[in-house]
Amino acid sequence: MALKTPQQFLDTLNDGRVVYCDGERVPDVTKHPILKITNNWVAMDYVMSNDPKYQDLLTDIDEDGDRVAFALQPQRTREDLLRLREVVKLWARATFGKPSGAKFVAKDGLNAVTVVSRRVDKKFGTNYAANVEAYRKYLQKNDLAFAMGLTDVKGDRGLRPSQQVQHKDFYLRIVEERPDGIIVSGAKAHISQVTACNEVLIAPCHAMKEDDKDYAVAFAIPVNAKGITMISTQPEVAPGYSLFDHPITGSVFINDALITFENVFIPNDRIFLKGEWEFAGDMAVMFANFHRLSAETYKAVELELVTGAAVLMAEYNGIEKKAHVREKLTWLTMYTEMVEILGKAAVEQSVKEEDSDLVYPNPMIANICKYQFADNWHTATKYLQDIAGGIVATAPSAKDFFNPETRPLIEKYLGGSARVSTEDRLRMIKLVKDIGSSYEDVLTIHAEGSLEAQKLSIMLLGDYERYKAAAMRAAQIKNKKEHPLFADLPKFPPKL
Amino acid sequence: MALKTPQQFLDTLNDGRVVYCDGERVPDVTKHPILKITNNWVAMDYVMSNDPKYQDLLTDIDEDGDRVAFALQPQRTREDLLRLREVVKLWARATFGKPSGAKFVAKDGLNAVTVVSRRVDKKFGTNYAANVEAYRKYLQKNDLAFAMGLTDVKGDRGLRPSQQVQHKDFYLRIVEERPDGIIVSGAKAHISQVTACNEVLIAPCHAMKEDDKDYAVAFAIPVNAKGITMISTQPEVAPGYSLFDHPITGSVFINDALITFENVFIPNDRIFLKGEWEFAGDMAVMFANFHRLSAETYKAVELELVTGAAVLMAEYNGIEKKAHVREKLTWLTMYTEMVEILGKAAVEQSVKEEDSDLVYPNPMIANICKYQFADNWHTATKYLQDIAGGIVATAPSAKDFFNPETRPLIEKYLGGSARVSTEDRLRMIKLVKDIGSSYEDVLTIHAEGSLEAQKLSIMLLGDYERYKAAAMRAAQIKNKKEHPLFADLPKFPPKL
Amino acid sequence: MALKTPQQFLDTLNDGRVVYCDGERVPDVTKHPILKITNNWVAMDYVMSNDPKYQDLLTDIDEDGDRVAFALQPQRTREDLLRLREVVKLWARATFGKPSGAKFVAKDGLNAVTVVSRRVDKKFGTNYAANVEAYRKYLQKNDLAFAMGLTDVKGDRGLRPSQQVQHKDFYLRIVEERPDGIIVSGAKAHISQVTACNEVLIAPCHAMKEDDKDYAVAFAIPVNAKGITMISTQPEVAPGYSLFDHPITGSVFINDALITFENVFIPNDRIFLKGEWEFAGDMAVMFANFHRLSAETYKAVELELVTGAAVLMAEYNGIEKKAHVREKLTWLTMYTEMVEILGKAAVEQSVKEEDSDLVYPNPMIANICKYQFADNWHTATKYLQDIAGGIVATAPSAKDFFNPETRPLIEKYLGGSARVSTEDRLRMIKLVKDIGSSYEDVLTIHAEGSLEAQKLSIMLLGDYERYKAAAMRAAQIKNKKEHPLFADLPKFPPKL
Amino acid sequence: MALKTPQQFLDTLNDGRVVYCDGERVPDVTKHPILKITNNWVAMDYVMSNDPKYQDLLTDIDEDGDRVAFALQPQRTREDLLRLREVVKLWARATFGKPSGAKFVAKDGLNAVTVVSRRVDKKFGTNYAANVEAYRKYLQKNDLAFAMGLTDVKGDRGLRPSQQVQHKDFYLRIVEERPDGIIVSGAKAHISQVTACNEVLIAPCHAMKEDDKDYAVAFAIPVNAKGITMISTQPEVAPGYSLFDHPITGSVFINDALITFENVFIPNDRIFLKGEWEFAGDMAVMFANFHRLSAETYKAVELELVTGAAVLMAEYNGIEKKAHVREKLTWLTMYTEMVEILGKAAVEQSVKEEDSDLVYPNPMIANICKYQFADNWHTATKYLQDIAGGIVATAPSAKDFFNPETRPLIEKYLGGSARVSTEDRLRMIKLVKDIGSSYEDVLTIHAEGSLEAQKLSIMLLGDYERYKAAAMRAAQIKNKKEHPLFADLPKFPPKL
Q1: Closest CA to A98 of B385, D488, D493, D462
Q2: Is the Cβ–Cβ distance between C397 and C242 less than 8 Å?
Q3: Are D470 and A305 a contacting pair at CB < 8 A?
Q4: Helix (H) or strand (E) holding C446
Q5: At a CB cut-off of 8 Å and minimum separation 6, what does A101 contact?
Q6: How far apart are CA C403 and CA A306, in angstroms?
Q7: Which of D231, D319, D412 is facing C396, going by the closest CB pair?
Q8: Tens-of-pLDDT digits for all 496 residues of chain D?
């Protein structure tokens, strides 16, 4: 076997999967005008891994001599992580800041189950690790696209899975055990690009207690398995959309669908956790640990696009020398670079996972990186919109621009600086509109963990004993728990 | 004559006007699926002024015994302004925070030309004030809807009107004077609801120099006048849209169109400024002075909706007791109330215009109010989206919800707290999505003057002599320009 | 009797009171080099009320024909509150932003006990209201300075008064009841200007439960009563200080002392609450309600000084035209004016207290005002320091400036713009240093209630039913609790 | 020769230098009660480099077998910079966050003149590089303390050196050239620890034009040279101060003095620039490049102390579990760690200087690091003060605490949580007061370059072509200047 071509990949998607989009059952996702956006965006993974220019970066030769995706290899060193950053940057640069997703999210889930399955096997004598390794090999050999199903729909956020009132399926669970496998029901929400994937990898989204043991389940399954239904996100564009009007939303439809499971059968060799509730939390934590590299890397790439749009709009409007504009562009530059610096630093100071031979980015740094990105996004769009002007809200559509009756008027009146064509100015205006969408805003603060999740992590990771030792020393307070960094310091102020 | 009914008003709109929308010439705006949104929203003015519950607030009986819109009466006292605030609030509450616009914007332009025409007549012996008064009467007697055309398209923002390079029409101008009137060409951008109005009132958007005297022109004209073309803003919704998915964008389409003038004839009695370039700036300033009441009043009403959505999403998700949620709701409450308090204070401390018998809100307070509203908007949407959750980005469409095949799955899995139906939760999620749109963001910071414009006004209005006197007194520095508030104060510290 | 002269007032302070300052018992506060700063600052109240220029504003003629302080009159109308604002502004302007305190704080406590004593009498048939009225009359007739003792020292903030572990006196309490009065012990912290007052008025600082009834006590007592000890705040300046170096800290020493009570006897006619624990919370709340006028009014006066210092430093350094400086000055202007506008609006929308004939500022507005002031202070000092330059940290002392050996060098080298003398520039630099002190920072965020207290109030005062009604209407959700502002609105979008 | 002992170093300071402090000429700085704070703080460099525990880190053996300070060695590799960070951290941890300054600042000036002298020699055939090398050797062999004199006093900030009006010495300049050297006059401001140093290194603070060539001068000279006068910063503490009350200000007095030059002779072999005005700007830029490592490294150490104080005050007050306190501690943790991460990343991505064999931190990262530190400081002190409480402003002095008459009252009433002694709580309160001082605030935003300087650097360093290329690709705009990162990317969306 070998890498799939883009067309080979696309052919796999017409496999009987049950997908709904905007009120209709989609008979063949490869022919649907909106779902094709997702398919083609995911297919970019295959376009690039078949491109000799990028193949050395994106692929490895495995022990059988087959070319396999580097993203599916386990990362064992800081250098692997640095290379993975380059992979993610390439994916993101190629596709307007949002990395093509054939393996982008779920590879981190695969690493998470790799780590946790070893822990479970060690404690309970189970055999999940072998299942995971076989699955990894299967994915590599078949060059499959797979999605990660982590987030349950949750119902009342104040109640645990087994406490839910309306029904018991707000978290995905085992409803029956059979000799050859298990039957599961439930749903996972916000499952990026799942309609354009071959497989979905499922794991619990947070820690469980013993009562919740039926919910402690992890497995992988083809998305066309019987009992699975995918309901697409409401599309941002309608059929017949124009890329001029929708440069991003017309190119990238992540389609973070709802995927529901009604009595779906999972064979034994695809199960990675089955009732060992003590390890449910580990799954979520380890996924986050690995996924931070991917998440934080593409943000900086996305921001270069945002900052670039601001610089260009300033030039196109002829206001790039104005003091307030320079101030805003400086802020955007700092924001862009800071996310890149922090993302890289997290990898430079990567952490070795104890129960495996895998490494992942420094969690404190990675959380700060994500927080800085997400917390500042709305300020960035404010600055971008401020520079671009009210025309972002009021511009006519591409159809008006290309209508020969109105084009001369638009050409004449919506021009800006003489250095740029009206068409280019309008294209940039439309890009600014897409960047500031409600969809982007929400993605920014919720994808890869909310702002509150990052704050919680940072609080838990703080080195409080060090901080306290420093303050006590300065205040001349005796520290009962001497801290190694401060214990041996000479007296200050000195007696001289 | 009397007030128009909603239907009478709508009938006036099919008058041969030249309107384009999304690439097509619209033969009759009253039949266009998207432009009808604008028409019906504007018609709410007529719905309410014909409603006995609101008629006392919204209308007056004029000297002829006719019932006329209060909004078209000149405001002469603080009490008039307080009543006008109630009018604007009613308009805004009825239409989801965006006041129905039959007179909402242009009434402030009418007051501006009222003031400035008197100044011009006084200096040059012209007769513009009479034209304005006749026009005001005409509007009142016919209960017309009219739009305000202030903002020129501007071309290169670094060049004055007469300096523009590509062509000379980046600002609307007089191209020919005739005995019976003038011929004008050019364009105005972002002209709210103009496609659903009867008339448009045109004035310069900033100060001019002598070279620019052809651009110093103000007048009013029916929008179906020969030579006028209106090109609609790209719609936010497509035909067949659902109010469930688009509760605001499906109800309010302000349609801030581009309106172009190709050799349009303006008769003498409709001209309010014609070459008196020294007064061009006054037009823009006075419009802003009057319009601040309208602008700042509806913002607070819009914010109650935003804050309400946040409170409800917190409850629907079952997280309203969480500390970070309470913190955000408190911030939203403060933001909402502060805009209301500042808007009201601006009216309480209203200013008498010297060259007329009109009053307008205190400019310092009104500018601060607008700035606080606009500068904090993106933080507000961030908090709202944070509370609402990622589902704002990923929810399926109304068609999926109402599709009997998928409805049971959505009902089951997208429920939140048991206290609320899935349908209500989804409706609120869609409202949150609409609130955070790129369109809303841009409207917030650019409509009624940009953030930089407010900062400039605040800087110019600062009472620096008072501030400096206070600091010099404390620093024991002799103040050569004694300030009345400080000159007589007893020595401090005292000699006792 | 009549108003006291400043000297008559100062003479009353040598009355045997037990005061400690910087490690020493002070035999006579009127002779102490640092405590005199407090005395003279408080005496400014007497300087001004004896000044014919201000007497009409500051005083009234009572029913006996005596001239009494207006501040001690009960405020019954909005106009009274507006006058009180003028009084506070005058006090604050005269004394560098910090109102001279003979009655400044405690008058609000007097109003609080006025209200609450009536409530207690009504419920329990007690006779406290008469005690309060007699005390008010006594203060008026003798023109006394009095301090407000509200804040207990609190010990562990997580425990109620009766739960405290180390001892039971962390909150002031009744230790014995006698026929002629009570014996109290405990302490109150941060008691502004108490060392320069004649009397102190004591009330509980928050709500109590039944277990805490001994702590539900309010009374007034001369500060030289047996058993009272006052321990001064550590002074900011040392004897021999220079006003040049310390323009504010050398003129105003609020001396928020610790006042301790060791078995102090309180006679019956000075008791305003004695064990009626249900009303302890009312005392604190009503004090806050009244005190907000005082607190919010002087802040805006203080800010004019801060902003003035920034404007002057910009001019003295020759940088007032720089874009970033203009931006910062604009921000400071907005901050200054916003606090003034909000403070005034709170009074314009004042609230009638139900159980008395008193009025107080609108609590929502007053809390927002205080929050905006306090939350932005550190940004204001950052901007001020940024404009003033590093010299604020590194300037030599006044003694160097006035030393003939070094003066020529300082004159020569520390000059700025040629428009200003080096001396004036240095004076302003020293003022900037005083404004940014740790003391000022802490005063800003803690005096008159912390930021968290304001947030809590704002959260409690939010009009959530209105907000929710607005959002539900827009989302087309049926509101079971119809809201009056929304119930009658016409359907939108309309069927037309 | 060898390293000096602390006592040997202190002995060198009584050398006839002309120092004024608080109005008096200081005959011997080693005996002055306040200047001793500076001396002893600087002497900590000697304490530690003589301490076997730290000697390996702090010193190297030179080619002669002498032990010399590592800080005076040229840094040639990333590893050297990482070691230098450890040196600076040790210095900073030992002395409460402010690195002892015998070589801390001026070493970076030495590197700057090392680089620039080579450039000048190369262009003009001068021999400055040899002078610099000889001077470096002299400093090493004698283990001297030296200060950096960069910032001129500047007069009117809007005028260049030669344009100044009042006099021509607002920037230090050559007033005479002699065969054996030059005569200079002028002054440098904010010269940290200069009164406790042996030497001062002088360089221009910004770029010059040809008219300003007399101001393009760099040299080194002993501070006791004839004609030099140092005027100390006004001290923060008075003689007899207590470390309890002033834990930081009583331990560290940086004494950023004014140093004036009246016709001071500089011998030829100590001159590093003399009129080559084209290189004046390079001096300032290169100093900044090198100094960033020092500056950014100690900030993170200082912040651990600040955050530690906040954590401890929360515990001491019993409020560490409150939601708002946790939120603030989390913010402080992120702030502390982010400065550390950015500082380290700047070194990890260090830059090779072209005209020498030296390396320095990445300027973009280092500027962002400094900006983040300085811009957030005031928020940090606000949070710290918020947590610590009003007592920071109102606590009595150490003398009261240690006075047996008042100690029992203070012990009793100023206790907090039962887990901590009143003494420790008071010590921490005093530390918080010191941290929030005006001095600290100003130091934060002005030392090592102002916020505006960092913004300017970031703006200049932005990779705008990359940003623009990203935006143009997404907007489908043809980029005439193809960018290497984007030029080869496959078309997106793809044709599949």
Answers
A1: D493
A2: yes
A3: yes
A4: helix C438-446
A5: A41, A42, A45, A145, A147, A192, A193, A196, A197, A254
A6: 58
A7: D231
A8: 579 999 999 999 999 999 999 999 999 999 999 999 999 999 999 999 999 999 999 999 999 999 999 999 999 999 999 999 999 999 999 999 999 879 999 999 999 999 999 999 999 999 999 999 999 999 999 999 999 999 999 998 889 999 999 999 999 999 999 999 999 999 999 999 999 999 999 999 999 999 999 999 999 999 999 999 999 999 999 999 999 999 999 999 999 999 999 999 999 999 999 999 999 999 999 999 999 999 889 999 999 999 999 999 999 999 999 999 999 999 999 999 999 999 999 999 999 988 788 999 999 999 999 999 999 999 999 999 999 999 999 999 999 999 999 999 999 999 998 899 999 999 999 999 999 999 999 999 998 889 999 999 999 999 999 999 999 999 999 998 899 999 999 999 999 8
Residue type, D463: D
Tell me if chain A has a CB within 8 Å of the CB of D92: no
Within the 20-39 window of chain D, which residues sit less than 8 Å (CB to CB) from chain C?
20-25
Strand order in the sheet with A271-274: A146-149, A199-202, A217-222, A271-274
- List per-block mean pLDDT (blocks of 10 residues) for chain A, which spans 496 residues: 90 98 97 97 96 96 95 95 97 94 94 96 97 97 97 91 94 98 97 98 96 97 98 95 96 97 98 98 95 92 97 95 96 97 97 89 96 97 97 96 97 92 97 96 91 93 95 93 92 92
For residue B298, which amino acid is it?
Y
Torsion sign (Cα): A338, A344, A348, A354: positive
- C-alpha Rg value of chain C to the nearest Å: 25
Q: Which two tokens stand for residue A108?
A: 């981190």
Q: Is the dihedral of CA D64, D70, D72, D77 positive or negative?
A: positive
User: What value of ipTM does the predicted structure carry?
Assistant: 0.95
Model-level pTM?
0.96
Residue B330 has pLDDT above 70, yes or no: yes
Tokens for A343?
């993302």
Q: Does B341 touch chain C (CB under 8 A)?
A: yes
What's the pLDDT tens digit per position in B349-388? 999 988 788 999 999 999 999 999 999 999 999 999 999 9
In terms of DSSP bridges, do strands B228-231 and B19-21 run parallel, antiparallel, or are they unpaired? Answer: parallel
Cβ neighbours around A215 below 10 Å, total: 27
How many angstroms separate the CA of residue C234 from the nearest CA in chain B?
20
Residues 71-90 of C with CB under 8 A from B: none
CB contact B446 to A (< 8 Å): yes
Q: Are strands B67-69 and B59-61 parallel, antiparallel or unpaired?
A: antiparallel
Tell me how far apart the alpha carbons of residues D193 and A150 are, in angstroms, rounded to a whole number.
58
Spatial contact of A89 and A99, defined as CB atoms under 8 Å apart: no
* Dist CA B293 CA B287 (whole Å): 11
User: Whole-angstrom Cα distance, residue C21 to residue A29?
Assistant: 83
DSSP state for residue A476 in the 8-state scheme: T
pLDDT score, position C1: 55
Size of chain B, expressed as the number of residues it contains: 496
Q: Are B62 and B219 in contact (CB under 8 A)?
A: no
CB contact under 8 A, A324 and C324: no
Cis peptide before D493 (omega within 30 of 0): yes
Task: Tell me the residues of chain C between 228 and 247 that have a Cβ less than 8 Å away from chain B.
Answer: 243-244, 247
> What are the φ and ψ backbone dihedral angles of C103, each rounded to 5 degrees?
-130, 0
The contacts of residue C467 (CB under 8 Å, 6+ apart) are B304, B305, B307, B308, B311, B333, B336
Q: Pick the closest to residue A21 from A249, A229, A185 (CA basis).
A: A229
CA geometry: angle at D480 spanning D475 and D485, to 5°? Answer: 70
C-alpha–C-alpha distance, residues B399 and A234, integer Å: 9
